[in-house]
Amino acid sequence: MPDRLIALIRGINVGRAKRVAMADLRALLASLGYGDVRTLLNSGNVVFSAGGSSGSEIAARIERGLSDTLGVPARVTVLSADELDCIIASNPFGDIADDPSRLLVAVLRDPDDRARLVPLAQHEWTPEALATAGRAAYLWCPDGILASRLAEATNRALGDGVTTRNWTTMTKLHALVRR
Question: Using CA atoms in the order 43, 147, 168, 118, what is the torsion angle rounded to 10 degrees?
Fold first, then answer.
């Protein structure tokens, strides 16, 4: 049985230059040979089935397809269903994050990039908070994402090696991948 995977596409449907219809995105993944393709929201979240390739190989294929077929360059991060299970289970802010739209999960393309967050973890961010586990950094931004110094610093430290989703989106993806 093929593995269930999640593709998180950074930056599509943000601004006018990277608009992609989710029907076109589903068609692209199907044309690449992936099965049971489903999108969540209108922001580049895709759940699909695939077998035989690593997440980084699949991400590279989807990136090429986005660029070559749809004319949209974008970075793609692929997670297995098990990796998403770990991200959900490892949330350290369940007790304090009372607004899931203000709890961000920054998913790293390369787990080794966590080392770039060490200096940030040593900084005092109160009332914000940062924690890392596996391929994810958790950012609690109680005053909102736009006002968050922590979110800005994390994006600066990781560049395009990360894509960020709020907790609501992550739990919806988790429910979709486990159906």
Answer: 100
CA within 13 Å, CB half, 159 = 3
- Are 67 and 9 in contact by the 8 Å Cβ rule? The answer is no
The string of DSSP codes covering 132-146 is: EETTEEEEE-TT-ST
Q: Kindly report the CATH number that applies to the domain delimited by 85-167.
A: 3.30.70
Q: For the sheet with 45-50, list strands across it.
A: 35-40, 45-50, 3-10, 75-80
Q: How far apart are CA 124 and CA 122, in angstroms?
A: 7
Q: What is the DSSP letter of 8?
A: E
Instruction: Quickly tell me which residue has 């695939």 as its tokens.
Output: 50
If you search the block for the tokens 């060490």, which residue do you land on? 118
Band (pLDDT 50/70/90 cuts) for residue 16 is: low
- Residue 131: strand pairing partners: 138
Mark residue 71 as left, alpha or beta (left: phi above 0; alpha: psi -120 to 50; beta: remaining). Answer: left
The reported pLDDT for the residue numbered 108 is 95
Report if pTM > 0.85: yes
Torsions phi, psi for 52 (to 5 deg):
85, -10
Q: What is the CATH number of domain 3-83?
A: 3.30.70.1280
**Which structure tokens are listed for 173?**
């993806």
Q: Where are the domains of the chain?
A: 3-83, 85-167
**pLDDT (average), residues 155-160:** 92
